[in-house]
Structure formats: structure tokens, C-alpha cells
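Repro:
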Amino acid sequence: MQRVFYTLSLLAVTPLMVAGAGCSLMKPRDSALANYERTRQELAGGGSSVEAAQDSEDAVADKPLTVKDFAPEKIGATVRKLTGNGPNPQEAKRLFAQAQQAYAAADQLRLQNPDADSGPQFVAAAELFESAAEKWPDSELEQNGLYMAGESYFFADHYWDAETSYEKLLKKYQNSKHIDAVQPRRFAIAQYWLELHRKDPMAFYELNILDESIPTRDAFGHAMRVFDRIRLDDPTGKLADDATLALGNAYFDAGKFMKADEYYTDLRKTFPSSEHQFKAHFLGMKSKLEAYQGPDYSADAIAGAEKLVDQIRKQFPVEAQQEREYLDRESARIRYLRSERDWLMAQRFDRRTEYGAAKEYYVGLIADYPDTPFGARAKQRMQEIAGEPDVPEQPLPWLIAAFPDDDEVKTLMNASSSTPTLRR
């Protein structure tokens, strides 16, 4: 198999890069593959094996049709059964047995000769497992077939097909007995795609048409989707918090700090006993500060960051001591940003000669932020406007006097809103 990327334009399809496949990727991606290979070796261990379905399910496949079989969601399966293309347990078992033999041979080749290309044999096994599953839907054999198809594609380095099989399995069998084996595979696949994106991101106009290990396009987006599915398909599983952290870290690295903050917040709230709690607090604080858009926008980000700094110092004293210098620096940064907001508000009132409101902000700056540049400026400005009236003089007082006072207006309104007298 060769891995080729093509740039599509209006005039031609131009080859961009070609490299050998098998168990080695193009050189710019060697480190990414090495990381993945380590992960796969840790997760894979030996080959996988699944027993075929029980004979007792034969009766289920041969039961007569009922009114329920003609419901909208089942009409397709019913039509296939009436046309002779319905469930065939015996054929499914035969195909499953062939698939097991093909898988065993491929797995033996992989273990005995790691340099040999066992991919085609694994792909052949995967196709047989898929055929077996199609021949007996809604059965134990289908569940096993989908799982083994995913395993076969996984060891063939057809990671897109593997993820498709795994997702189909968990979508139809939400409480599948294979979920604990499937989720680490999906996690490894998502990590691999994300690592490839970091090393060699695909441009929006690039399409992958031959490399079976990665999606057709947008490896980053598909990696994020798989991480998200891991936590949604098994929210109480061992990898749910790891997937949430991976999502936050990936968006943080991509500079999408608001999105990263969403996942760090989710990790803190949804997985309170997770081993990643310190990272969720620490990186959440950094995300909020990076997402802050300036004094003309909401202060929620810096308020949240300030709260997280306090929580880190209380809940993680050991880690807080290790990061003491950084936390002190960020605390000073938060104080600066807060004082900047108050200074700009004071300046707005000052320019409108609303000195009373401006003085309130200046006094607050002097009292709360004396160690910031704005504290010193506020003290100086307070001296300059000390004799100014709190409220600016009203222009054209004779014109204002021509209109009724507020009390008079309120009196008239109250009178008009009293209980009306009915005419007789």
C-alpha cells in the first residue's frame, strides 16, 4: 500500500507526497508513529478471540413475522427477510468461523514475523467478520463480528475502518461486553491522528485518498470527535476523564482557549475524583486568562481565573508550592487586569465631568490596587479633581425649569391609574 496526498484544484490533481507504508510512515511522521507503536504494544498484547453465538439464537431468527415487524424502523429488515436476504444464522456461523481462521493466521504472522506485511490478511478477516455480522443482525454473533472486524482493521493499520466498526458496535450495543477493550483502541487511534496533525497538519484543500491509517481529511477534527465519543459512549469508564483532558489539551495547543476552558471545566465538575484534577484547575486558569478579550468585554474570564488560583492553593498545596512562582505572577497579572478595568471606567466618568462617580473608582483603585500603576495614577488624579463638583452643572437651566418636576409627573400618573368611575 502506498500513502499519497493530493491537492485538488480547479485545473488538475497534483501529487504532493509519496512514502512507503506498512509499519513505517514518511519520515516527518516517524516520531508520531513511534509514539503510537508504544501505545499499541501496551494495549494490544496478544491476539484477540471471541466465541461464536449460541445455537439457541437460531429459533429467534426463524420466528414468524408479526405486526411489529412492519413498524417503520423494522420494515427494511422485514423486506430483506421476505426476499430471501434476511437473517441466515447458519451462513453467519460459517463466515464467522472462516473469519476466525483468517484472523488467527494473520495474528500468528504478525507475532512471528513483525517485519512481514500482515495487513492484507487482517483486512480479509475483517471483511469476513463484517459479512458474518450482516447475516445475523441483532444477535450475539453480530456483536462479536463487529468487534472482531474492528480488531482486524486495527492490526491492519486501517484505523478509520476500525473506528467505524467500533462506533457501529457501541451505537447498537451500548452496554457491549467489549466496551472495555474497544475504548483503549479508540483512544489510541485518536491520539495517533492528533499526533500526525501536530507534526504535519493537512491544509483544508488536501485530501488523503490512499493512506488507510488516517481520515480522508481533517485528522484533527476526527480525533476530537473520537475523544468526545469515548466520554459520551462510556461516561463512567476509565478513559472518560482522560478523553476530556485530551480534548482540552488539544484545543489549548490549537489556541482555541474558550473551547479548551469548556472541557477543563467539564473535567473539574464531572470527574471530581479524577487524577487530572490539578491539571484541570491549572490549565483551566491559563485558558481563562488567554481567553480574556480585554477591558471592553466581560470580566468573567479573569474572575474565574482568580477563583481557580485560590482553589489551587487550597486544594493542591504540594503542586501549588511547586508552581508558586508562576501562580504569584499570574495573580499579579489578574490584579493588573482588574485595576485596568476600574481605571478605564473612572476615565469614562472623568471625561464626562461626572466627577462623583469617577472619584469612587479612583478611591477604590487607591485602596485595592496601590501596588499597580493605576493606583498611583488614581491618587494623582484625585488631587487634580478634588475641588470639582460631583455632578456637572446643568446646561440651559431655564429650559429644564420649563418642564414639570418628576414628582408632579408621578402624581399625575398615579391619579390616572386610580380605579375608574363607571358611567351609569
